[in-house]
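Minutes, project check-in
Item: structure for the 167-residue chain
Input as provided by the requester:
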Amino acid sequence: MKRKLSFEAAAVSAWLVIILSSASFAGEYATYYNGRFGFSVSYPSVLEMGTAPENDDGRRFSDGQGFVLTVYGSHNIDGLNVKGAAEAAREYFDKVTYETIRKRWFVLSGYRGDSIVYWKQWVGTDFLHCLLMEYPREKKKEYDLMVGKIAGSFSPGEPGGNPGTVP
């Protein structure tokens, strides 16, 4: 009887850890705004923000368990249009499983090694605003809702200007 109870207690504990870790992503969100390039994104406040790079072009966030969010801006020195930028981004993937191209942005999703990759990029004549999320394939169900919320919040802005506007 004792052994059966401890097995059940362990099973319940493991279930609670899974539920609570998933629920932590459903909680509070914070917003990162990049003053240099003008874009913004909301992210779960449980993610740890990395230090700013010297050129302050973006940030990296992670949960320490395989989820990594990277957001950054750059100058469009090659003069890429949306299709050209999407084609260049495809090189990052082993396999693209989803692709959407619009007038000012694109989304690619697929696989790179053992990770799921989601890439959304706003393309302007002078700038590129990039959102990149990577996480282990086996944690797809755990992260999918969070990925959708983060992606939906990613907003371009005018470099050095206001978030949420596209020049």
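Outcome recorded: Residues 87 and 108 are 10 Å apart (CA to CA).
No further action items on this chain.
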